[in-house]
Amino acid sequence: METSGIVLVAGATGGVGRRGVAALRKKGLPVRVLVRNEEKARKMLGPDVDLIVGDITKESTLVPDYFKGVRRVINAVSVIVGPKEGDTPDRQKYSQGIKFFEPEIKGDSPEKVEYIGIRNLIKAVKGSVGLQNGKLLFGFEDNNYRELAWGALDDVVMGGVSESTFQIDPNGGENGGPTGIFKGVVSTANNGGFTSIRTKNLSTAEDLSAYDGLELRLKGDSRRYKLIVRTSRDWDTVGYTAGFDTVGDQWQTVRVPFSSLKPIFRARTVSDAPPFDPSNIVSLQLMFSKFEYDGKLNPTFVEGAFKVRTRRFCRSYPT
Length: 319
Known about the structure:
Oligomer: single chain
CATH architecture of the largest domain: Sandwich
Radius of gyration: 27 Å
Strand content: 25-35%
Mean pLDDT: 87
Largest sheet: 7 strands, antiparallel
CATH class of the largest domain: Mainly Beta
Helix content: 10-25%
Number of strands: 20
Number of domains: 2
CATH topology of the largest domain: Jelly Rolls
Order of helices and strands: EHEHEEEHEHEEEEEEEEEEEEEE
């Protein structure tokens, strides 16, 4: 089992649930438990256990926000069954099989627990768990196309002379399909040295908290580019940034984990910036620049023309 993401154990105070929690902790995996009785759970599993108090038979207690970060679920919830006639206080007759006891359900029915309850649980965690495919933010994939409004943002804003454009080529993509082209000419004249394209702020922020990063399918020119993701609607604000290298004239898949994004403002790391919030993605930017950040230079930077084709830009990907 991969270590990325939280494992949720439902019914963690039962016999199977406790064993499951112990096994996961032994492997060093992050665990969150779903229980009905907080006091009982902390007594059994420890005072610092990460827990959600809820009842799967009551949908209103399973708030989806409680399950953010959960990637896998182990369900140990079960119907409570016991002897109809009861037993001695020490349960000797029943546990030793001396006498057969007619069983009966002591709590909620199987329908309420194993059908309605599991349906409620699935509904609550479906935004985080079981994602096999990424979510297309922009680009072309199979017969799907999602468009975003892109605009050039070059060093002319600082007095430079670089320029870039973004165009759609209907037949220039992989296997003859459509593709986007980010191209232009970059110059260091007038203290410039960068070009970029940036989307308008999305009308509704993208919630990608169920995913681990962004994936790009592109054909580059052996140069290093930057992907910038913003979580604020302000124009001049921190951009969570990661650089990636391209291979000349060859289609490649680039994955940018959210964990690799650094808070950057005007090519400087912002040490006190809030952590990146994948649930509130507002805009995207692709940049070719002379600079990395904090005074470092892009080792692949060359003045002149550049071009990169993008087939999927961007698509989120699951664990």
